[in-house]
Amino acid sequence: MSTDPLTVEAAALAQAGLRISGLSKSFQRTQVLKHVGLDVQPGEIVAVAGPSGAGKTTLGRLVSGLETADAGSVQLAGRELLAQPPQRRHVAHMFESFALYPNMTAFDNIASPLRSPACREKPDAPRIRQRVMDLMELTEIAHLAERRPSDMSGGQKQRVALCRTLVQQPDLFILDEPIGHLDAKLRHKLRGEIRRRQKALAQPTLWFTPDVVEAMAVADRVVMLVDGGIRQVGNAAALTQSPADTDVARLTGDPSMNLLSIQLHQQQGQWWARFDGSDTLLPQWVGERMAAEGVLAATLGFLPAHTEVQADVLLGPDGLPATVYAVEPFGKYTLLTLTVAGQRIRAKVPAASEWSIDQRVSVGMPAQGLCLFHPNSGRLLAVSSPAP
Ligand SMILES: Nc1ncnc2c1ncn2[C@@H]1O[C@H](COP(=O)(O)OP(=O)(O)OP(=O)(O)O)[C@@H](O)[C@H]1O
């Protein structure tokens, strides 16, 4: 794949990154973005991940000028964007809805930003053809060049929209769920290809996705957006091993962290939790920390990969009594879903092991990487020590 070198002017403009601060937005009386602030360095890919309705699309639309912010500032390449109309912002935005021109072929849709009077580079026709075809080949739609959107599948339209964004040389790329409609094989290929391509450029990229695994795979940093607010910014290790709260814990990891609600009591100087009539000995730091918080309840978090399961019910004092609810053999490992006192947790266990539904088992929580969350606010209070 060939990529044009940035023009001198575009390179100069791209010498600074993106800085969003205090950005807020309400629709009617509902605040959907709450004082959002984040920086994206030149050449950096930052993924904004969060569940449906978290505010991802709204954040993108505020940055590219399709919505008006109530408060805050957006600086790009040293310019304040919020006072400028969309066409002066030099943001290439791929919309979740694709927004293709229905009367244009795939080729013409992709070429349209390069032929626009607003295009700063003014490439000639052979150069446009080369850039468009390079991207169509990369995304495996070169054979659709003359087809119109009405004759394309959702995944094909999504790739046309993606190419139409990547063909540009803006000051910022915004990709809103760019590969969500593609099959797993193509999604995995394009994750790597787009990351490779964007990392070679000087511009920052904002990538929105509800899929935290995709976010971790493509981005230098992941921003977790929940209910319009940023809960945590970090890399894959930080988000999966020490999530800022139980909402982030539920969204990250594959599979996500086990969250177990417990009630604590002290007996003969030791801290215990009661499950289905039997007591389990807790790590003493858990009891001491919750006593210091003045709450005798907590949520414990531990990863399925660090959850030990024994096929006997002769529990040690720190074992949890559980029954097998579901068995999923993935080939390389088996994923067990277990019931512990009415709560569901999961364990990744060796593939060779044999399990049956309703089998009674004993579960061991890990000594390392055990997360302690506040039972009411859900915020992370402590992690025992980094997971092995
Ligand atoms: N024009 C609008 N008028 C009223 N409410 C809106 C408007 N646009 C978005 N919202 C609301 O704002 C909230 C955030 O929506 P947004 O589309 O930004 O979320 P999202 O994280 O992109 O979700 P998804 O992953 O489903 O696309 C939602 O509750 C949505 O209903």
TrEMBL record:
GO CC terms in record: ATP-binding cassette (ABC) transporter complex, substrate-binding subunit-containing
PROSITE patterns: ABC_TRANSPORTER_1, ABC_TRANSPORTER_2
Database matches in Gene3D superfamilies: 2.40.50.100, Nucleic acid-binding proteins (2.40.50.140), P-loop containing nucleotide triphosphate hydrolases (3.40.50.300)
Taxonomic superkingdom: Bacteria
UniProt KW Translocase keyword: yes
Lineage: Bacteria, Pseudomonadati, Pseudomonadota, Betaproteobacteria, Burkholderiales
A Pfam family hit: ABC_tran
GO molecular function, one term: ATP hydrolysis activity
Keyword vocabulary terms for this entry: ATP-binding, Cell membrane, Membrane, Nucleotide-binding, Translocase, Transport
Species for this entry: Corticibacter populi
Metal-binding keyword on record: no
Domain ABC transporter: 18-252
Protein's name according to its UniProt entry: ABC transporter ATP-binding protein
